[in-house]
Fold this protein.
Amino acid sequence: MSDSTVRAFVAVQIPEEVSEAVWQVQDALQAHAAMRGLRWVEPDDSHITLKFLGETPIPQLPAIVEALDGVAERMEPFTVRLGLLGAFPNVNRPNNIWLGVQEGERPFQRLFNGVEVALKRLGIKPERGEFHPHLTLARVPRSWSAEQQSAVGNLIGVVELPEVPPFTVSAVALIRSLLTPGESPQYMRLGNSILGQAPPLAEDEWEDVPDDDSFE
């Protein structure tokens, strides 16, 4: 990282009531010995990533926010429910444990496609693999043996989890991720594009807006 770039990604942020339910899901998983040594993600920082941008030039950030505004304006809010427990790359050798989208995957896919197309116009390369909307719960330590990984994978699809309430996806955010040694990443929202709404006018555009008196 340099002073001219920030580490950034595009995501849907999770409301507080869903974060609280995610705490309960993590507690249910940690009741099993095989899961207790995982590196758990703080639910308060939970999000569903649409696009990881990596080190991004600071001068490009306004154009990215503008592109996301355009995508959001053309989409209506939609309802999502999380509930499918899964693992990447697979349950036999998992390194990432997540909750998948159980309801609302199709509009999520449309949102992802819109973001990909808009950012491609800015020279940002599209993702190569398929999009699987998910919320990361925990990561498996790299030092774990194949047996330890397998024990975690054996619980996928078996553990009964608390229900996570549905929520409305109403915005897409550009977020900065600041990595700090030995600590969880710190997140800062750089932009928030509201679905179904035109973006707010920039400061230099206000002079083109007529006064209310002009309508009399």
Notes: The longest strand covers residues 47-57.
